[in-house]
Design a protein that fits this description.
By secondary structure, the protein is an alpha+beta fold. Helices cover 26% and strands 26% of the residues. A 5-stranded antiparallel beta sheet has the order 1-5-4-3-2. The radius of gyration is 26 Å and the shape is elongated.
Length: 261
């Protein structure tokens, strides 16, 4: 960019600045350079795709981004495996606010600059890979989120807003522990019920004593990635039976005035 302050080295000249030639041929050459630079910027959006490799960024990015031949040979197989396991998760891009609170405390696995000063960053949050860009004097922008997993691209069958039938069988129960969001709690745990149809239900006891029930929450994979599995067990009951237990528990809590969790 001709007028990019990050690239310009003539701003300090002040009154001694000599403008460039104004001949038609020279102006056209500058315009062509600007168009080529803009086209390169658009092509660099490939950074948000699964084909981008940190071992070999390709001709669209500075050559210094590409690992040396000795390092590239040793990491080529691992890099290939990681790329084949990246599953685009566009639905997580709507959680930009949640992710933005986690990124400042995370160390990026990849942090490079292009010649115009734009940063390209890759973070790993549990089983999620988060990619961002940041132009000069601008905020960091979320451009892509991937799951790093051999599993199906969809973590649950019905997706966001899908209602789980009461008659569906629960196949597995997993307990997770995570950093508490409430200062009154010494620890915070929650249960994930996985049905035979692949749906996920999150149940947890709140600080007020009542139990919450969320079916196929959008942020479940991110939450599980940042939590620790305490125990897991197979199960042979139905969603309806567990839901009745949750309702009865809440009724008891309301009748007894609630309690701490």
């Amino acid at each position: 960019p001709i007028f990019d302050p990050f690239l310009s080295d003539r701003r300090a000249e002040g009154d001694a600045f000599a403008p460039p030639p104004t001949q038609h041929a020279h102006i056209e050459r500058l315009r062509r350079l600007v168009r080529e630079e803009e086209a390169l910027r658009r092509q660099r959006r490939d950074f948000a795709g699964t084909t981008f490799s940190t071992q070999d960024a390709g001709p669209l990015f500075p050559s210094t981004w590409t690992a040396s031949s000795s390092l590239q040979a040793s990491s080529e197989l691992l890099g290939g495996l990681l790329r084949t396991r990246l599953v685009p998760r566009p639905e997580y891009e709507s959680l930009g606010g949640v992710l933005s609170t986690l990124l400042p405390t995370s160390v990026p696995l990849f942090d490079k600059h292009t010649e115009d000063g734009t940063r390209f960053l890759i973070y790993r949050l549990g089983s999620l890979e988060v990619r961002t860009t940041q132009e000069q004097s601008a905020e960091e922008v979320l451009v892509a989120v991937f799951s790093v997993s051999q599993l199906s691209p969809q973590p649950f069958a019905g997706g966001r807003g899908h209602r789980v039938a009461d008659g569906d069988a629960v196949a597995k129960v997993t307990e997770f522990v995570e950093r508490p969001s409430d200062v009154r709690a010494s620890r915070q745990s929650y249960i994930v019920l996985t049905t035979e149809r692949g749906d996920s239900i999150v149940a947890e006891k709140l600080v007020c004593g009542t139990a919450s029930w969320q079916e196929n929450p959008l942020d479940l994979e991110l939450r599980n990635s940042l939590a620790k599995v305490v125990r897991s067990s197979v199960c042979s009951t139905t969603v309806g039976a567990l839901k009745q237990f949750q309702v009865a528990h809440d009724s008891a809590c309301r009748g007894g005035g609630g309690g701490g969790g």
